[in-house]
Amino acid sequence: MATQASRSAARLMISPSVILLFLWMAVPLGMVIYYSFRRYRLLNPDRAGWAGWSNYSNFVFSPDFGGALVNTLILVLGVLLLTVILGILIALLIDQPIWGQGPVRILVISPFFIMPPVSALVWKNMFFNPSNGLFGELFKYLGMPPYDFLGQAPLASIVTIVAWEWLPFATLILLTALQSLDGEQLEAAEMDGAPPLKRFFYIVLPHMSRAITVVVLIQTIFLLGIFGEILVTTSGGPGTASTTLPFLIFKKALLDFDVGTAAAGGIVAVILANIVAIFLMKAIGKNLD
Amino acid sequence: MGKISLQKVEKRFGDVSVIPPLDLEVEDGEFVVFVGPSGCGKSTLLRLIAGLEDTTSGKIFIDGADATQLAPAKRGLAMVFQSYALYPHMTVRKNIAFPLKMAGVPQAEIEEKVDYAARVLNLSNYLDRRPGQLSGGQRQRVAIGRAIVRSPSAFLFDEPLSNLDAALRVNMRLEITELHQNLKTTMIYVTHDQVEAMTMADKIVVLQAGVVEQVGSPLELYHRPRNIFVAGFIGSPKMNFIEGAEAAKQDAKTIGIRPEHVTISKDSGAWKGTVTVSEHLGSDTFLHVETDLGLMTVRSGGDVDVHHGDTVWLTPEADKLHRFDDKGLRIA
């Protein structure tokens, strides 16, 4: 039992790290908020004074904003769908007792160790490139004209790349959930006359619901900020076909050199991310009880 | 209907023979208990009957039909697992209804059967709870309820009481026995606890290393154990075994005498010894006596006034002596 004295001592002891972490978060956020109301264009000599809400209206009413929002949602939902469904299937597969189980599992996990721009470049040059890529070769072998994945379907291609990167994470968490399932429950269901597919939907899937929630929540946080893969593959193009919210902010800040509008975009993104988080917690957070 | 017959059933895991070829008959309506020390293959045998394990060779007949290759669900048997294996995300109602739902029974009939099972098992007030909100005994009853609604031809119990505390275990033992008397359905019950076996069974099957050591009614096993293993396993406290000269006097390699068949006296008797521990249970007293023939356990009345360090004399009741030959088998 903690006494009053030991509790206040504990608070005192952890306060430096708490204060440091708070500053770490609060100072950049404060600066972004500050810049979002400033007139601050690096290409313009008139770099002083308050801009009011004009930075926000510039960002939100810019022609790219709506598309970027939709693209972000497509990217996040597409990757979530792919990783969860494929993750469950792969977890079911590698949960089977097979020869070479250890190496297979390590191979399945390995994409997670590769940094995002590297894997994006590997996909871009090794698979998607219409003239040199393996997929192009495959199309040629089948007698079809090579398909320019990043040109014709840029967002779908990026979803593929990101899903490939995040699949190991989903698989790993879903696999551990699968392994924690009591075998007697499955046997009981078998005795109760449930065929394999029904056993999966009535017993296995409900058991995994908490793990699926964890996967969805954690991945959403990271997927909202996907940037490197877009930069090295399509640079948001062609046109704005694969421009997402983070990439739009990058464009405002480092291509248009409009720090104020970019900062306003950042604040908009923070607010949107929080709205998404609230909806997610409301919708599936009850699984975490 | 629930006659189960095993013919030369064998189970091997790789090179390890868990159950050497074995024959067994379970009659309709019988309460059969498989009992043996842990690792003796009793659970494996039950799982073979349930169809959760494949037999290596031999045949299993249920109600006269060959069920060896039949899927578990098609055998018409219901099983209660040691961990209860309830579905944690479903309410008690849905748990009990699950086998009916899988069988495609109409909703109205499902409700009727679930309500009936809940009434029989005193679960009516808990139907909308989840298994996690129930006590051990209630979970056990839900597991039994899930088995009852299928109206199986036989129930299989795999050590169902081992997760309950002692008081609850005695209760559930009674409830299961009553259930058997009401339903009159065949039950096969696996346990390592010989008390459960003695109190519940119509017929006990004593197993050791997959081999059936003896099949018989509880009292048959108690009075006429076929060999030393059964003699030592059935009965509590354990039978005393004596070898050497004392046994040779009776023309046997080993003689056995149950603790309750030894009379104790402070002044005269056959074997002299010193009391090391006396356990006073109120109704009985268990005395551990160090004699020249080894440590003996004696069971006597609750009011016996003997304590640690006392010298006592033990006399076996001559007609209650069990004699075993050099192979450990009973001599008539």
Automatic annotation (TrEMBL), chain A:
Domain ABC transmembrane type-1: from-to ranges: 69-280
A GO CC term assigned to this protein in UniProt: plasma membrane
**Transmembrane stretches, start-end:** 12-37, 68-94, 106-123, 155-178, 199-227, 259-281
Give GO BP annotations, semicolon-separated: transmembrane transport
The listed locations are: Cell membrane
InterPro entries for this protein: MetI-like, MetI-like_sf
Organism domain of life: Bacteria
Which family is it part of? Belongs to the binding-protein-dependent transport system permease family.
Q: What is this protein's name?
A: Sorbitol ABC transporter membrane protein /mannitol ABC transporter membrane protein
Specify the species.
Albidovulum denitrificans
TrEMBL record, chain B:
Keywords, alphabetical: ATP-binding, Nucleotide-binding, Sugar transport, Transport
A Pfam family that the UniProt record links to this protein? ABC_tran
The residues covered by the ABC transporter domain are: 4-234
What GO CC terms are in its UniProt record?
ATP-binding cassette (ABC) transporter complex, substrate-binding subunit-containing; maltose transport complex
This protein's source sits in the domain of life called Bacteria
Q: Which PROSITE patterns match?
A: ABC_TRANSPORTER_1, ABC_TRANSPORTER_2
GO MF terms held by the record: ABC-type maltose transporter activity; ATP binding; ATP hydrolysis activity
Please give the family membership noted in the entry.
Answer: Belongs to the ABC transporter superfamily.
Q: Which PANTHER family match?
A: MALTODEXTRIN IMPORT ATP-BINDING PROTEIN MSMX, MALTOSE_MALTODEXTRIN IMPORT ATP-BINDING PROTEIN MALK
Name of the protein in its database record: Multiple sugar transport system ATP-binding protein
Which species does the entry assign this protein to? Answer: Albidovulum denitrificans
